[in-house]
Specification:
By secondary structure, the chain is an alpha+beta fold. The chain has two domains: 161 residues, no CATH class; 169 residues, Leucine-rich Repeat Variant, CATH 1.25.10. The protein has a four-stranded antiparallel sheet with strand order 1-2-7-4, with helices on both faces. β8 and β9 form a beta hairpin. Bound molecules: cobalamin (B12) and iron/sulfur cluster (2 copies). One iron/sulfur cluster (SF4) binds next to loops.
């Protein structure tokens, strides 16, 4: 026990206090694990790197994994990890308009990094003044992490019993399904750990064949390079041509392997106003393609969409328009092909080729005469060839 912990019968016990304070800070789930190293998870994560399955994420290094799986390295004297879950499920989707792009549910609102870190800080401050938990300036030490930190957030959540590993990679909880954002506080407080959940996916394998890009290469194993979430958000360059058709209308992230999951059918919707912004549920793709950088910033500031950046989102809009195949998008794609930057032009050319027809062909031919960029010209030629063949 921490030196400052109080054993007075009238004082709320430590474990109970953490749970209450976490809920008051705005978390839906709280569970506790000890602070021993995550040896098994470290081995798995390092193997993923070695196998090339994390390629494309230059920041996901061996050193990051080594540090992130060693709580003592992150906080000297670490004793416990408080795992926290935040439900972001906005409830069932309404009908969507044609010509619109899809945004993953976690991104339909405020950037969760800042939101969760603010809540975790509030929780640590509340813990520091609680009689069972001690004071920051005396004995309570804590550090908190969410997503962009080096910890394996899912491994911490699973070991603390907050959920189990789904075969799609996501952590599932019996009440909230996988629509949960995860974070954790490492502390020097000795708190009673929760047991791991005994639940598993059982015989179900539904998510695996549902992935349109075959990114779930084995149960529990996602090949980052094929995942639409990576392709639309983290990847900054040209999207491999062979994967574009499978990306459908997703312009930021992807929820397919969660949408098909039977556990998510019963998921409880969140009442948190920071999620479920209506204007981010679907995006008008032509509007997105015609936006200036200033307009993009104004519209999406403070949301996760900023991570993909203006150029990346316009690239994604082209792919989605190509897949939707709506001829009314041809003038906007032709404008992008004439005036966008190289990356956007390449994907606009591809989209025009995929939509096809005389108007698209004319736009491709007239752009090819004026185009100086070799990569764009190569995409125009391929698009015209494919139209001829198709
Ligand atoms: C890199 C990353 C990505 C990459 C790579 C994904 C990946 N699978 O690794 C990309 C960009 C593709 C991505 C996508 C998404 N991500 Co992401 N991502 C991360 C990040 C930063 C690191 C993940 C990581 O360490 N991967 C390495 C591998 C080794 O870890 P793992 O997949 O968890 O692997 C474990 C299991 O496979 C298990 N395991 C292996 N074999 C076996 C066998 C058995 C039998 C069992 C039981 C278990 C098991 O052990 C492994 C090690 O613990 C975390 C945040 C963080 N700091 O942890 C968020 C995080 C995982 N992402 C998150 C989210 C929400 C998503 C998306 C749903 C977003 C979206 N809608 O577009 C998708 C989901 C894609 C998917 N199906 O996984 C959440 C997950 C929340 C949850 N409930 O699980 C996290 C935790 C962020 C957060 N703090 O909330 N992500
Ligand atoms: S998020 Fe989409 S692309 Fe990625 S594994 Fe799941 S279904 Fe596949
Ligand atoms: S779809 Fe089935 S196998 Fe996949 S995560 Fe959900 S329960 Fe597990």
């Amino acid at each position: 026990m921490s030196t400052s912990q109080n054993h007075d019968a009238n004082v709320e016990p430590a474990r109970q206090a953490v749970e209450r304070l976490a809920r008051e800070a705005g978390f839906d789930l709280v569970a506790i694990t000890h602070a021993e190293a995550f040896d098994e998870d470290r081995g798995i994560a390092l193997r993923r790197i070695d196998d090339g399955l994390m390629d494309g994420l230059p920041w996901f290094t061996r050193q990051r994994v080594e540090h992130g799986t060693n709580p003592e390295y992150l906080l000297a004297g670490a004793r416990s990890i408080i795992s926290l879950g935040l439900n972001y499920y906005p409830g069932p989707d309404e009908e969507r308009d044609s010509g619109t792009g899809l945004v993953a549910r976690y991104a339909r609102g405020r950037d969760y990094h800042r939101l969760m870190k603010r809540r975790m800080r509030r929780l640590v401050i509340a813990m520091s003044t609680h009689p069972s938990l001690g004071r920051v300036d005396e004995s309570l030490k804590a550090r908190w992490f969410v997503d962009d930190g080096p910890m394996l957030d899912r491994a911490a959540a699973v070991r603390s019993g907050l959920g189990w590993f789904g075969k799609n990679g996501n952590v599932l909880n019996p009440t909230f399904g996988s629509w949960l954002l995860l974070g954790q506080i490492i502390t020097n407080l000795e708190l009673e750990p929760d047991p791991r959940l005994s639940k598993t996916c059982g015989e179900c394998t539904r998510c695996i064949p549902s992935c349109p890009t075959d990114a779930i290469v084995a149960p529990y194993v996602v090949d980052n390079r094929r995942c639409i979430s990576y392709l639309t958000i983290e990847h900054k360059g040209t999207i491999p041509r062979e994967l574009r058709p499978a990306m459908g209308a997703w312009v930021f992230g992807c929820d397919i392997c969660q949408e098909v999951c039977p556990v998510n059918r019963k998921a409880k919707a969140t009442g948190d106003p920071n999620f479920g912004r209506r204007d981010l549920t679907t995006l008008d793709l032509v509007e997105l393609l015609d936006m200036t950088e200033g307009e993009f910033r104004q519209r999406f500031a403070g949301t996760p969409l900023m991570r993909a950046k203006w150029r990346g989102m316009q690239r994604n809009a082209c792919v989605a328009l190509g897949n939707l195949g709506d001829e009314s998008a041809i003038p906007a794609l032709a404008r992008a092909l004439a005036a966008g930057d190289s990356l956007v032009k390449q994907h606009a050319a591809w989209a025009l080729g995929r939509i096809g027809g005389n108007e698209a062909r004319t736009a491709l031919r007239s752009a090819s005469g004026a185009e100086q960029d070799a990569a764009v010209n190569a995409e125009i030629s391929l698009a015209l060839d494919e139209m001829r063949a198709g």
